[in-house]
Specification:
By secondary structure, this protein is an alpha+beta fold. It has a domain of 118 residues. Helices cover 28% and strands 26% of the residues. It contains 5 helices and 10 strands. The strands form 2 sheets. An 8-stranded mixed β-sheet has the order 2-1-3-4-5-8-10-9, covered by helices on one side. A two-stranded antiparallel sheet has the order 6-7. A hairpin with a 4-residue loop joins strand 6 and strand 7. The longest helix is centred in the first third of the chain and has 17 residues.
Length: 192
């Protein structure tokens, strides 16, 4: 029992440090790396305060909203997406906070709410960029081992309407959630 308590006390500072958000400046600098370079300066940025709550860190002047890495996660992930996707993304964050996760959360909640007119979602294609990595180095301002995945939302698209495969293959575009409101083209770069 003593060993367990001692181990817990030794690991406590590491756990707390992993949940401390970066400064607003570093959250902005890291989050916008998910966006195409020419769109970074005008992107709005959402990030985390010392209280762990999501807040607007920077107002935007273009169509992108960037979401900083969640300090509660052990790896790095930032996303930038068209501002018309924000209600959909915000609802996803809300559901996650309520403990609603997994594949059915879209069909049972978000897609259902879109059909009912309760959740706003664009009818035309919209872009999402996701930057994942091992972490963010404040000294260099770079994401460690970062790779960008591209997602193009194409509501109700099918393999027949797009000519895309519905089978996932790294390095090639494919259609996920075909025939649904959340249908999207995934393009994940090949592994390094």
């Amino acid at each position: 029992m003593k060993n367990s308590v001692l181990l817990f006390l030794l690991l406590l500072p590491l756990t707390a440090a992993a949940q401390t958000p970066l400064s607003a400046e570093h959250q902005i600098a890291s989050a916008i790396q998910a966006a195409p370079e020419e769109m970074r300066a005008g992107a709005a940025v959402l990030g985390y305060g010392a209280d762990g709550k999501l807040a607007e860190l920077r107002k935007g002047t273009n169509e992108l909203v960037c979401l900083a890495d969640n300090p509660k996660d052990t790896t790095f992930s930032a996303a930038c997406y068209h501002k018309d996707l924000e209600p959909y993304m915000a609802r996803g964050r809300e559901l996650t906070a309520q403990g609603v996760t997994g594949g059915n959360r879209n069909a049972e909640y978000r897609w259902k709410e879109i059909k009912e007119g309760k959740l706003k979602f664009p009818k035309e294609p919209r872009m999402l960029y996701v930057l994942s990595g091992k972490g963010y180095d404040e000294a260099s301002g770079k994401v460690t081992d970062g790779v960008v995945r591209w997602v193009i939302y194409v509501p109700n698209a099918t393999a027949e309407s797009t000519g895309l495969s519905t089978k996932s293959k790294r390095g090639e575009p494919w259609l996920m959630d075909a025939g649904t409101l959340g249908a999207h083209i995934m393009i994940t770069p090949p592994m390094k």
